[in-house]
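Sorry to interrupt, but I need a hand with the structure work. Go ahead and set the record down below:
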Amino acid sequence: MKNRKCLVLILSLFAVLFGTVAVPAQSGTNALTIGISVEPISLDPAGGLYVPEQFLIQQIFDPLIAADPALNLHPALAKSWEVNEDGTEFTFHLREDVKFQDGTKFTGEAVKISFDRAAKGTTVAAAAPTIFYDYIETQVVDDTTVVVKFSSPHATFLQDLTRPWLMISSPAAIEKYGEDYGQHPVGTGPFILKEWATQDHITLTKNPDYNWAPEYMAHNGPALLDEITFRFLPEQATRIAAFQSGEASLVQDPSYLEASQMATDPNVQLFTFVNPGMTSHQMINVEKAPTDDINVRKALIYAVDQETISQIAFYGLQPAAHSVISPSTWGYNEEAAQLYSYDPEKAAALLEESGWIDSNGDGIREKDGVNLHIEYPALPTYEEAFMELLASYLQKAGFEVNITKLDDAGISEFGFASKHNILNMGWISRDPAVLSYVYDSENIEGGNQSSYTRFRNDRLDEILRTAPQTIDEEARKALYQEAQMIIMENAIALPIHCYGSVYLADSNIAGFRFDPEGFPYLYEISITAE
């Protein structure tokens, strides 16, 4: 790729001085290097949770059922399926011509082993067990027929099957690698793990035997790329430098300023997608003062101008959010999103009503000799673009804000210990059922331990446990809309922005399109001649 003006030299020098990983430039016309922001923790579907894991797992593994960009369901490893009347038993008829990447045959036993593991989860924060609530068993009728049984209805199970957490693993590889399977994943997908250099990169090679792509894909047979290298580049400037220098032809979540400026360059392609699911929002801790007061929680929300944050922090590439669920998500409640708008005067009135006054003119409100203090643990990888701007809005309202920058593990520890007042959360998902992961109170002390609001509400818990079992679609939608209203009325979420997938690509990248959750179909991508 051609270097672009003096900015290239500056950014490249920055990268060299501050630790860009020394990985060779792309090795051939069919080799693609992608700059991503976060290294996965595990590539075991039964243990996955985070965005980078989702991105890579679906390159290595296949689902029983696949969803096209419009969420229509298609056969994948399963040729066909039936569901009983009450939505508790799902029968799948499997393909007979599929092999795992280790050469072993795909059979019903692999489905059973994969689902049994998913039901338990192989990490504390695994997403799969939440999907497998009330799981009874997977019955292997024969090599090509399985029946998955639950003790209660599962209205979303077919859609859930299309997601990475329920993709099918090689039983032989699970047995071979044991607890280390997440670093040695083996599936049936279009790419095979070649190398994982910790804190450096992951390289995948194409599966030469792959011949079972879903029918909505642009082609069948092996992937068009021979090799993909995912470089772990946490800093936006480093990712931009890698792109500018030609070391990466595709970068995820680049600097929004540079992305918006480079979009007019004929040598650059900019791809964006507004993700469904939970928005990026601050979960507000209702047990730690001062956010144990609903007036203070509401004041936090009224004090923040999300529209301006969207423009300043993201140059409009990440739309403003006004509720806990993205507008692109099925079941979105517009009424809940209209409960709050930027109103610093109302924020001030609510704080004064609760006795928080700036008595000494230092800009910080106090009550009974205690400052209006907010503990804000932040993960720069996801919050760097807006965390200081968010803090400045709160400071203007009279809050004293302490930002503690942590990694993923540190954030989880901080949140579980309830040391925070606000803590960022978001979750890409095509369905509002994802709310149960972090808003069901059983996940405060137990479960995935990610209910960082520490909010206990019997009706909200009832909804989040009942809705996934509700077969009637309109009734289910009404339940999730009520859940959104409860969350926003109780001011336990401070919305910031909708997630938007943003990728910068070299002009010779062809076949780029997004899946339903904003990840590119790497199977379809090719590299054209310059």
